[in-house]
Amino acid sequence: MAALASQLREEKDIVLAKEKEIKALRLKVRNQDEAGMMASSENVSLREQLERREEEICDLKCAA
Questions:
Q1: Nearest-5° angle of CA 44, CA 47, CA 48?
Q2: How far is residue 61's CA from residue 55's CA, in Å, rounded to a whole number?
Q3: How many structural domains compose the chain?
Q4: Would residue 16 count as lying in a domain?
Q5: Is the alpha carbon torsion for 17, 22, 26, 32 positive or negative?
Q6: Does 3 fall in a domain?
Q7: What is the pLDDT of residue 39?
Q8: What is the separation of C-alpha 29 from the centre of its chain, rounded to a whole number of angstroms?
Q9: How far apart are CA 22 and CA 32, in angstroms?
Q10: SS3 for 64?
Q11: Whose CA is closest to 53, among 15, 61, 21?
Q12: CA 27, CA 39: separation in Å to the nearest integer?
């Protein structure tokens, strides 16, 4: 009986460790997703700035 209880505790510890690992991985994925969204948002902003600058150059060339 003591051997079964010991085995059960060991298996429970393994399960808890796996659950902790899963939570850590989920957090890591969420952080990467958020970083990806931020990078995407920044990319859109930079593209808009680039388009404005290109329009300004075109306007300057046309005015010259």
A1: 90
A2: 10
A3: 1
A4: no
A5: positive
A6: no
A7: 96
A8: 5
A9: 15
A10: coil
A11: 61
A12: 18
Mean pLDDT of 50-55: 96
Whether 50 has a pLDDT exceeding 90, the answer reads yes
pTM: 0.64
Question: Does residue 15 lie within any of the structural domains?
Answer: no
Q: Which residue has the tokens 């010259």?
A: 64
Asked whether residue 14 is assigned to any structural domain, the reply reads: no
The stretch 42-57 carries a mean pLDDT of: 96
**Which single residue is written with the structure tokens 């990806």?**
36
Q: Which domain holds residue 49?
A: 30-64
Q: What is the mean pLDDT of residues 1-27?
A: 95
Mean pLDDT of the chain: 95
Q: How far is 34 from 39, CA to CA, in rounded Å?
A: 9
